[in-house]
Design a protein that fits this description.
This protein is an alpha/beta fold. Helix content is 37%, strand content 28%. The structure holds adenosine-5'-triphosphate. InterPro entries: AAA+_ATPase (IPR003593), ABC_transporter-like_ATP-bd (IPR003439), ABC_transporter-like_CS (IPR017871), BCAA_Transport_ATP-bd_LivF (IPR052156), P-loop_NTPase (IPR027417).
């Protein structure tokens, strides 16, 4: 598998606060990679660096080009879709219009068929196509945010805490859909997830972030068996 995304010695700061101290990570084409770590470790910031939402030093390479210095709009046009924490739907638009906005970077052809396709994956969205996004449940909003991101036909999907605040059954449905999406589209995924068990079950590989550093990385199966991970993230 060839490398799709590579961060080399990436640093980021918010004013005087240094949030990332030299992050190195890679995501191969079609691969699913999880970022684990405590609150405030720098996981969200890492995703924001890739999307061009935070100014960085170091190298970010994506699909054979340098990403550093690109605006968020340019990064999105290059095929990186970011679903931020807290969903990020247009609450005043209905479900279908949210999905149409997702396709705005593309020509209009095939948009209707693609919307129908995501309604198959997420039937609850199809049933609520005329409902305002702001009136959807948390799980439905997360599904909509993901479906909207997929309307861009991304090569790389950045997911920030998709399970946050959702009931266990909703989380199970959502991740089952994500597994199907990954299989059918081949989209690479970089996911930040507090639920380490869920993340390690879903991802091919994972990185553990602590205080702005990567402290551990490897195959998800192997990490799930490591004492350090079990004690810190899997409840012993
Ligand atoms: P969480 O799981 O709580 O979202 P995280 O690992 O995603 O944590 P980040 O959100 O990346 O962590 O935050 C990394 C550090 O940067 C933290 O110390 C945080 O307080 C700080 N930080 C994040 N966003 C900002 C901001 N907009 N302004 C100032 N400091 C920020």
């Amino acid at each position: 598998m060839s490398t799709l995304l590579e961060l080399r010695d990436v640093h980021a700061r918010y004013g005087s606060l240094r949030a990332l101290h030299g992050i190195d990570l890679q995501v191969a084409e079609g691969e699913t990679v999880a970022l684990l770590g405590a609150n405030g470790a720098g996981k969200t910031t890492t995703l924001r660096c890739v999307s061009g939402l935070v100014t960085t030093t170091g190298e970010i390479a994506y699909d054979g080009r340098r990403l550093s210095g690109h605006t968020p709009e340019e990064v999105a046009r290059l095929g990186v879709a970011h679903v931020p924490q807290g969903r990020g739907t247009f609450t005043g638009l209905n479900v279908e219009d949210n999905l149409r906005v997702g396709a705005i970077t593309r020509s209009g052809r095939g948009v209707g068929a693609e919307i129908a396709r995501w309604y198959e994956t997420f039937p609850r969205l199809g049933e609520r196509r005329r409902q305002l996004a702001g009136s959807l449940s948390g799980g439905e909003q997360q599904m909509l945010a993901i479906a909207r991101a997929l309307m861009m036909r991304p090569k790389l999907l950045l997911l920030d805490e998709p399970s946050l605040g959702l009931a266990p059954l909703v989380v199970a449905d959502l991740f089952a859909a994500l597994v199907e999406i990954r299989r059918s589209t081949g989209t690479a995924v970089l996911v930040v997830e507090q639920n380490a068990r869920l993340a390690l079950g879903f991802a091919d590989r994972a990185y553990v972030v602590e205080a702005g550093h990567i402290v551990l990385s490897g195959e998800a199966d192997r990490l799930a068996g490591e004492d350090r991970i079990r004690e810190a993230y899997l409840g012993g």
